[in-house]
Amino acid sequence: MARLRDELDPAFRALANATRRAMLDALRAGPRSTGEMCEIFPRLSRYAVMQHLDVLERAGLVVSRKEGRQRFHHLNVVPIRLIYERWVKGYEDYWSGLLAAVKADSESPANRRAARE
Amino acid sequence: MLERTFTIDINAPVQRVWDEITRRGIAHHAMFGTFLNGELRPGSPYSYRSRSGSHTFVLGQVLEVDPPRRLVHTFMFSMMEKDEPTLVVWELAPHEGGTRVTVTHSRFSGETATYRNVSTSWPKILALYKTIIETGGAPFSARFKNGLMMGMSFMLPKTARTEHAMRRVAAQPPNNPAPSSAPQAAQPLAAPPPG
Question: What is the ipTM of this complex?
Fold first, then answer.
């Protein structure tokens, strides 16, 4: 039996929240300090912002570094790449293979004959 | 000045990861099938070349080496001559029985061609190093793509020819930027060194 828990679990859990996805989008332009993240998300308390950033950091989607008195949060897209490789690329091959089979099947002489009749 | 950070956890000891990343004389399938050229000591040229050495894709200079934990080198794409040299800091640290690899790529003067390229390349490169180190080999798809690319190297522009590319490294002042001013990872490029 395949491992039910794998190392991408934290990334999936972190991404299963619209606020956290919005936070990742906010970091695409470049690293932001905790204070700047609070300004970008004025509806959230500072505590909530820090909690969300913590979940993202534990999932590897955010790398936080202390610079002077501030903490800067950097986007790390590598786990998303790993998700893509595991869950998109593999299935793309599956679906394109399936569609190719449908095409080959529907264009087979027997089916063409059936279409003419 | 822009910078990007890329981190991945690899289930292998730090030394094993270091050996793979700095391996010479064998194709780096994670680095598009290129060969790492140059000595790992400060001041030495650092480049990723074709198998025969006729073409150079990435070139720079080693600024700092602390095996198996830290490697700092400058970075230019031979085919993006308009872009200024950038800085790559590799950091390997033990993490939960494995290794956490952090690549900090900085000193982009803006959203240059180099910036756009490495933003999408580093995740692929690090994911491939992880696969290669954890499974003992590169996936067939990567080998196949790299093989195709290398087969077409005769179509590359003149700037990718090694003798042309290396003139560009020689044109850089030695140790620029100076190793002492290379930023620690904790404060990458928050303030560019004066002068």
Answer: 0.73
